[in-house]
């Protein structure tokens, strides 16, 4: 197949359209043109054309992934989901994510630590943090390590006491209805009943 012409796509940065004599055309990145030595008047076989298309999809996936992570942090799983939603094939998306992991643009350990710290500062408890990290596709062993790190900084019952002193300043720990409502709040936040009871007991003693 002969390459009849190559045109710059004005609406897309670093992209060109390659036209073949058989009527086929393909929009490709400049990197793909350089990689395969594409020039007007050159011949390209059917297999080379397929290789070019496959390689260009990989370049496109990496380019889109880089654009995503430049705006916010992603876990490996969620970035791969985003790429598939964009139209990338699962295999291509996985390879693009792997590439960004190698470049350290995607790091599940770093992402999980920052996200868990953010949730903890918001007043979320262990069970909510664990559930949110699982949604992000973080490995269970890493989640457990991060939860232990958070506990080393502040015990869950201490975190409850801290929230009680700021959000529930009038909490006395003596009224049953008050205890029930406040306990429900902390249970929804992902704290264990044992830590809630301990915090309530210590807090009521100090008042």
TrEMBL record:
It holds the Pfam family RecX_HTH1. Residues 154-199 form the RecX third three-helical domain. InterPro entries: RecX_HTH_1st (IPR053926), RecX_HTH_3rd (IPR053925), Regulatory_RecX (IPR003783), WH-like_DNA-bd_sf (IPR036388). Keywords: Cytoplasm. Residues 61-100 form the RecX first three-helical domain. GO terms for biological process: regulation of DNA repair. The keyword Oxidoreductase does not apply. It is found in: Cytoplasm. One of its GO terms (cellular component) is cytoplasm. The keyword Cytoplasm applies. Coiled coil: none annotated. Belongs to the RecX family. Modulates RecA activity. This is Regulatory protein RecX.
